[in-house]
Amino acid sequence: MQKLIINVAVCGSAPTREMNPAIPHTPREIAEEALRCWRAGATVVHVHVREPETGEPAFRKELFAEVLERIRAESDMLVNLTTSGFNLQGDDPGEERLAPVSLGPDLCSLDVGSLNFRGRVFINPTDWVDKAAQRMRQNGVKPEIEVFDLGHLRQAVDMLGRGLVADPPYFQFCLGVPWGAPADLPTLMAFKERLPEGILWSVLGVGAAQLPLTTHAMLLGGHVRVGFEDNIYLSKGVPADSNARFVERVVDLAKILQREVATCDEAREMLGIPPKA
Ligand code: ZN
């Protein structure tokens, strides 16, 4: 079985400090949290940024740039910047969403398909998705292809057929968001079975599904994503004091399940991402 890539999504845009006081806000806090996770064994950090003063979701390029710079100064961790840009209201939000690609991170998330998402509508028109994939390819940025439903997976596989994504493709199955696909084992198996043989995939499960789904993935040869973006509790009613607690738990479980954890260099090789300069 392949070595395990541990992704950590340290803040997302939804959780607040009222929900968990450990949510990082400033670029320094986000980077420090990423580095704590890297020391614990995480290989990829998925980054959203917040307004430093208020913690509101932000999408300013300079905030992404500072997080990227701080993490790279201290580690060889792979950095995955979001392009979800949920709250953008400008003249050309589609283009604004692609600003993180131009910063040259190792990966960017690429949301394929639209859905009802926590009371809002997450819109990803086909032409934008194609354009985003092409932009990432041109910039040498690996897309982390996020699929929330089986239709999204079909669309992504069609994109692979049209040569929009450089080899090897890398998928994130996003399970349990209201109202995407549910976070359970039959659904995970359905996603896995519909992915062409040999393609790298990871899974995230929202809330209490984070632990069982990531454990299933470890047994099935997939990779995992943990962190506050998807789940703020270590166990029922117990907020985690750092994202690193989730990473430590994955590392412990991987040991028990005899699944070796990938180093950052090994993850780069598996994902076809050049070594850190
Ligand atoms: Zn995200």
Structure notes:
By secondary structure, the chain is of the alpha/beta class. It has a single domain, classed as TIM Barrel (Alpha-Beta Barrel). Helix content is 36%, strand content 19%. It has helices at residues 27-40, 61-74, 93-97, 126-138, 150-161, 185-194, 210-220, 244-256, 264-271; strands at residues 6-9, 44-47, 49-50, 57-58, 78-81, 107-111, 115-117, 120-122, 142-147, 170-175, 200-205, 223-226, 233-235, 238-239. Strands 1-2-5-6-9-10-11-12 form an eight-stranded parallel barrel, surrounded by eight helices. The protein is globular. The two termini are 28 Å apart. The structure holds zinc ion.
Which features characterize this protein?
TIM Barrel; eight-stranded parallel β-barrel; 9 helices; 277 residues; binds zinc ion; alpha/beta; two-stranded antiparallel sheet; 14 strands
